[in-house]
Design a protein that fits this description.
Number of strands of chain C: 6
CATH class of the largest domain in chain B: Alpha Beta
Number of domains of chain C: 1
Distance between the termini of chain C: 32 Å
Helix content of chain C: 10-25%
Strand order of the largest sheet of chain C: 2-4-3-6-1-5
Largest interface: A-B, 65 and 62 residues
CATH class of chain C: Mainly Beta
Largest sheet of chain C: 6 strands, mixed
Chains: A alpha/beta (570), B alpha/beta (432), C alpha/beta (123)
Shape of chain C: globular
CATH architecture of chain C: Beta Barrel
Radius of gyration of chain C: 14 Å
Strand content of chain C: 25-35%
Distance between the termini of chain B: 49 Å
Oligomer: heterotrimer
Structural class of chain B: alpha/beta
Number of strands of chain B: 22
């Protein structure tokens, strides 16, 4: 099957293309050097062409998401679209059903999305949902930061067994990478407690969050995993937490990456660049973190941008969610997973006239605009924590238009002037920057640059065409058109097949699930498994024989191989 | 002879996964570790051999081929304006997906056995959320366990051994001796007999008792009278103190709360109490899901439609309103004109009033066993037993999903095959 | 003598063990009975069978004794016999009234209907 996309104004940062009219030849789902005259042709008509969007952090599948749905029938009701000949019903806004999840991402021109966190014991559920999300390629990051085996090996300083556990845990969960959430806190929340900083000692396990983060970074690089450790810092949601964030980032200096990428990805910084000491003197410290990023080379981040309106907070950071629920007098779901991690789900509504929310709104934007290199700040809303992913086009418009930002600022609580720098920031990102923050950068962060995030030969034919002509539009002034164009792709092509046309889903092929199969020396694996067997014998409530995710749950796998290699440690 | 270890039991929400099954040829000859409930199901009972149809529910059935039965079933459903697709709990998640699709295509209503079990608990979750955990957290950490309106000795026999009372774990190496067990019920059940403390509540007064506990917890004991719902105030104060002093408290609840006066409000109140206790110490709450994969249906339905049960597709999109769209609501109002009852026995477990209406409308039954629903059915299609003869996914009461392997080969078509064929035939009949 | 009670229905292990065996006498034995405490049974005259009557129907079941029950609580295991007399009103939330039904119990010489006979009454 051959397809040729002609006359597109292509933005392909990886290959240095910034708006040039470039043809894209596609054959059998891949971008190739050329196609025959028999190829079907799509004339992009000078419109904007980018690789399909890649989202490195979104809560799209699994136990937390489903608890969110069950808890929030009011959310389900506001996004309902009846079935058509091609599509199942859409439901929901902050917690869409599986069909809406795939369709709406595709309608925005996104083609690859990664679930941000799954506990190994509940990974089967995550994959059941991922299997039913149409169109997009996907994967899931596996939680390791509070797991009992992790903490045992960190305490014993046994990196070989830690790496073996990570490799085995990724296999058991068909996971793609190491996710760390409030390390150590997940265990403490088992008794309703929490860690308060990187140097707290977790009782009964005698390790600190610092030890956990550094050890997992080492294990990650020992295994040469495609992605780096993906960290949700301790003290999320506490005024003054930017110090914990900076201290966590410093830890990255202790480990060298095994591949051409960051060694630490620090996520949804909107919730972790908080200054002040209480709600009264609360302020944004995004500028300090941006400064840090500007002089470091081994760390990437993502925005976790706040979107006004309804959101659903859901995270493995159990203590934060309890605190949230208490503060907001909101309904609260909690779901701690034995030997592994915590979780909590709490609905929230972000309001322009609430000072805290106005300041938080500024943080994601400041981070993106004050960090010079767009490869270091990915565009996310930590869906649905900051807001639903369908609002990414709004964020794009805000980044590209100071005018839009100023209009928005006029409607916000005045604290945005005194407690943030956003009113004075004039920088406007261009299409190349946006293509990096939503495609090239996220693919690089995830270690998927061979096939995702670019339009060179060998890439998957995942392409988005938007209904704007880059050389004829001034995004700064026409930000509304930017937003509507990115909301509704003229074409979304997935694996060479047109799946969206003029904003409507026209085909619903199944996507593939990326997961990592990492190898370690047999001896280390066996020793680790001896320990694991004891954990199952004594502590888990199910048998080891029934724990691991079976093949039946990943029917379209894309397995990425990795394996133990020597680590350069500073 | 074959010995299968680490098999999963397909009976209740405990989903015990340490069962040993011995087979000879294609027959199960022995079961080890299962309780009486699981052993009975796995060892098996008399099955319906062939599909059957009849026009007159008072008359005899005529045995027919599967194709004829599928055709008859499809005609019933395709020709109906408001079909109810009910049951599902004895089937695996892979079957549920087919059911939701069929209901969607028919524009009918899909509901499951939670309707007569923990449906009200879900309504409470809409209001208050659910602070809970996996069962292993209780096994490893709980030192105070409250069973409220449930009777695990009878309904979840291995629950206490595996998870909640006798189990030993990392922080609970003393097992039973390290735990205080409290049972709250309207009569002294077998579970109450093994408790450290039994609190007897007047039937229907649980809501009042929970409110009194919350008042005491909030430091307002002075507004609580000398007895509430038949429980002396001292006992209530003592219970609050016990829970506050726990290192990790767990509250398990059942039909005593969901089916009594107040229904979902009882659970709403219990969840609120649990949330408030978390200001003092760690407490979790969990519904004792009963019927096999009832939890799984709620999960599948929620991720596919946004709602966990009682979903009405007549508008082409999911609509949910228990009280209006749950099975017994529809039957009470005589609103359904056809029913597909699968993997659940409506005629046995619904009030007589509902069964009277089922007896008036065409009913298709998909089930391995002859039961009261067969008595009111017009088309009966026997299928393979999920979890014994068919592999697939089910969810435990705490939301952990597990995979069932086959113990023996099926001797009947599977639910999935039948549903797919019915769906195909419905499409043909409707000209799609 | 008519005994006024509050009727509850629910699971038992024998009822559950016969869930896939509902045409059998084992199932009938496991579900077609009503439990009251010895004192209440004595007031009824310790009959073999009783008629349980509520606003919603009546049913004949065996009488059993269970001294875990308070004086005013009668228990019938969930199933077709219990459901002949429970409240179909779901109180606007979908769940019928399976527990807490005001009921009257009287001794009777009438026999217990078989499952098929019970259901046949609805046809």
């Amino acid at each position: 099957m051959e397809l040729l996309i002609k006359n597109g104004a292509v933005y392909d940062p990886v290959n240095g293309i910034k708006g040039d009219k470039t043809d894209i030849p596609i054959k059998d789902g891949k971008i190739v050097a050329s196609v025959s005259s028999k190829a079907a042709v799509i004339d992009a008509g000078g419109r904007l062409v980018m690789p399909g969007g890649v989202d490195a952090h979104s809560h799209i599948a699994g136990a937390k998401v489903n608890v969110g749905r069950i808890m929030r029938p009011e959310d389900t009701r506001i996004g309902i679209r009846p079935r058509t000949k091609i599509t199942r019903p859409y439901t929901g806004y902050t917690v869409p059903n599986v069909y809406a999840m795939g369709y709406r991402y595709a309608q925005m021109g996104y083609t690859t999305v990664f679930e941000a966190a799954q506990a190994i014991m509940k990974a089967r559920h995550t994959h059941e949902e991922l299997e039913e999300i149409p169109i997009i390629d996907k994967g899931a990051l596996t939680l390791f930061g509070s797991n009992w085996p992790t903490m045992d090996y960190v305490r014993e300083k046994n990196m070989d067994k830690l790496a073996a556990y990570v490799a085995w845990g990724l296999l058991a969960s068909r996971g793609y990478g190491i996710k760390v959430v409030n390390p150590g806190g997940g265990e403490m929340w088992g008794f309703g407690k929490n860690v308060t900083g990187l140097d707290d000692v977790v009782p009964n396990f005698d390790v600190t969050p610092k030890d956990i983060i550094v050890s997992l970074m080492k294990a990650n690089e020992m295994l040469g995993l495609p992605h780096s450790v993906h960290l949700h810092c301790n003290n999320l949601g506490k005024p003054g937490n930017y110090k914990t964030t900076l201290a966590s980032m410093e830890l990255a200096k202790q480990v060298k990456p095994s591949r051409d990428r960051q060694v630490l990805h620090v996520t949804h910084l909107t919730f972790n660049v908080w200054g002040g000491t209480n709600w009264g003197d609360f302020e944004s410290k995004a500028d300090e973190v941006a400064n840090y990023l500007n002089s470091s080379e081994n760390i990437t981040t993502d925005m976790g941008q706040l979107i006004f309106g309804s959101a659903t907070t859901m995270t493995a950071d159990g203590p934060v969610q309890y605190a949230n629920a208490k503060l907001l007098h909101a309904k609260w779901a909690n779901g701690d997973v034995e030997l592994e991690d915590a979780s909590g789900v709490v609905p929230i509504f972000y309001v322009k006239q609430v000072s805290i929310h106005a300041i938080m709104w500024a943080m994601g934007l400041e981070l993106a605009l004050l960090t010079k290199d767009p490869y270091k700040v990915l565009l996310t809303t930590d869906h649905p924590n900051g807001g639903p992913f369908v609002n990414y086009p709004d964020v794009i418009a805000l980044l590209m238009s100071n005018k839009k930002r100023q209009e928005e600022i006029k409607t916000l609580h005045e604290a945005v002037h005194k407690r943030t720098k956003i009113p004075g920031i004039e920088r406007e990102l261009d299409f190349n920057d946006i293509a990096i923050m939503t495609r090239a950068g996220s693919a690089k962060v995830l270690g998927l640059l061979d096939t995702k995030g670019h339009l060179g030969v060998g890439a998957d034919a995942d392409i988005a065409i938007y209904d704007i002509k880059p050389d004829q539009i001034d995004p700064s002034v026409e930000h509304a058109r930017i937003k509507s164009a990115f909301s509704s792709a003229a074409y979304t092509i997935k694996g060479g097949e047109v799946v969206v046309k003029d904003g409507q889903v026209v085909a619903t092929p199944a996507g593939r699930t990326f997961w990592v199969d990492a190898s370690v020396p047999e001896q280390h694996r066996n020793e680790m498994l001896r320990d694991i067997r004891l954990k199952f014998k004594n502590y888990y409530s199910i048998n080891l024989a029934n724990y691991m995710v079976q093949d039946a749950y990943v029917t379209h796998p894309n397995v990425v191989k990795a394996g133990a290699i020597p680590v350069e440690v500073n | 002879m074959a010995v299968i270890t680490d098999a999963l039991c397909p009976f209740c929400g405990c989903v015990c996964d340490d069962i040993t099954v011995v087979t000879e040829g294609n027959k199960i000859t022995d079961v080890k570790h299962a309780c009486k409930l699981g052993a009975a199901k796995i060892m098996g009972h008399h099955r319906i051999k062939e599909p059957m149809v009849r026009d007159d529910k008072k008359g005899n059935f005529k045995e027919v081929s599967y194709d004829e039965a599928i055709d008859a079933a499809a005609k019933v459903l395709a020709g109906s304006k408001r079909p109810l697709l009910y049951g599902w709990a004895s089937a695996l998640c892979e079957v549920h997906k087919k059911g939701v699709l069929l209901a969607e295509e028919l524009g009918g209503i899909i509901d499951n056995t939670a309707s007569v079990c923990h449906g009200p608990s879900t309504l409470a979750v809409h209001e208050k959320g659910l602070p809970t955990s996996t069962l292993g957290q209780i096994k490893n950490r709980a030192d105070v366990v409250v069973f409220w309106g449930c009777n695990p000795v009878q309904a979840h026999p291995r629950h206490m051994g595996r998870y909640s009372v006798f189990a030993r774990g990392f922080f609970s190496d003393k097992g039973r001796k390290g735990r205080k067990i409290v049972v709250v019920d309207v009569r002294k059940t077998d579970t109450a007999n093994i408790a450290d403390e039994y609190i007897e509540v007047q039937q229907g007064k649980d809501y009042l008792v929970i409110s009194a506990l919350r008042a005491i917890l909030a430091g307002q004991a002075d507004v609580v009278p000398a007895a509430v719902g038949g429980v002396p105030k001292e006992q209530l104060v003592k219970l609050v103190d016990t829970m506050k002093a726990a290192r990790f408290g767990a509250v398990f609840f059942g039909m005593g709360l969901t089916q009594s006066q107040g229904r979902y409000k009882n659970i709403d109140n219990a969840i609120s109490l649990t949330t408030e206790l978390n200001s003092f110490t760690k407490v979790v709450i969990m519904p004792m899901r009963g019927h096999y994969n009832v939890t799984g249906f709620g999960q599948v339905c929620a991720w596919e439609t946004g709602f966990a049960s009682a979903v009405d597709f007549s508008r082409g999109a999911p609509y949910y309103n228990p009280g209006e769209t749950a099975a017994n609501d529809l039957l009470y109002r005589r609103e359904v004109d056809a029913a597909l009852i699968i993997a659940g026995d409506a005629a046995a477990h619904f009030p007589a009033n509902s069964v009277r209406h089922l007896a008036k409308i065409p009913v298709v039954q998909i089930d391995p066993y002859w039961n009261p629903t067969t008595e009111v059915a017009n088309v009966v299609i026997p299928t393979a037993i999920c979890g014994i003869e068919v592999e697939g996914t089910a969810y435990r009461m705490d939301g952990v999903s597990l995979r069932y392997r086959k113990m023996v080969e099926p001797t009947h078509p599977t639910d999935i095959e039948i549903l797919e064929k019915i769906t195909e035939r419905v499409r043909e009949i409707r000209g799609e | 003598m008519t005994l006024k009670v509050t009727l509850i229905t629910g699971r038992t292990i024998n009822q559950g063990a016969n869930l896939e065996n509902k045409t059998s006498s084992d199932y009938m034995d496991a579900t077609a009975y009503c439990e009251v405490n010895s004192k209440a049974a004595g007031l009824l005259g310790k009959p073999g069978n009783v008629r349980v009557r509520t606003e919603y129907g009546d049913v004949i079941v065996k009488l059993k004794e269970n001294n875990g029950n308070p004086d005013d609580i009668a228990f019938i295991p969930m199933g077709p016999w219990a459901n002949a007399v429970v409240d179909p009103d779901t109180k606007g939330c979908g769940m019928p009234g399976f527990k807490g039904i005001p009921a009257e119990i009287e001794a009777t010489d009438d026999r217990i209907l078989l499952m098929k006979e019970l259901i046949a009454r609805y046809k």
